[in-house]
Design goal:
Helix-turn-helix domain-containing protein; ArsR-like_HTH; 4 helices; three-stranded antiparallel beta sheet; 65% helix
Length: 94
C-alpha cells in the first residue's frame, strides 16, 4: 500500500527518531489541523504510535511496520524515478 506524500514525509522524519507534533509541523510546514489528521491516519494504519504527552503536544515514533512501509515506498519511488529518467532522457537527450 502506497502512502501519500504528506505521510511519506512524516514517516521519513520519524525514521530518524521520535518527534513532537510541533516539531513535525515546523519541519514540514503543514498546517497543524492537516498534520494532526494525517498523524491520526498513520497511527490508525499502525505506522506510528504515540509515545508521550508533553503539555499540549504529543511525541510520536515510527513503528517497525512503519519502517517496512517506508522502505517499500522507497523501492517503488526509486524505480519510478529511474523509469522517469530513462523516458525523459530518451526524449530530451540528457
Amino acid at each position: 500500500m502506497l502512502v501519500n506524500i504528506k505521510e511519506l514525509a512524516i514517516l521519513t522524519l520519524l525514521s530518524e527518531g521520535e518527534l513532537s507534533v510541533r516539531e513535525i509541523e515546523e519541519y514540514t510546514g503543514l498546517p497543524r489541523k492537516n498534520l494532526v489528521k494525517t498523524i491520526k491516519k498513520l497511527e490508525k494504519k499502525g505506522y506510528i504510535q504515540k509515545k508521550a504527552y508533553i503539555r499540549d503536544d504529543v511525541i510520536v515514533e515510527i513503528t517497525e511496520y512503519g519502517i517496512e512501509m517506508l522502505y517499500k515506498n522507497f523501492i517503488y519511488l526509486r524505480d519510478l524515478v529511474n523509469e522517469m529518467e530513462t523516458v525523459l532522457c530518451t526524449k530530451f537527450d540528457c
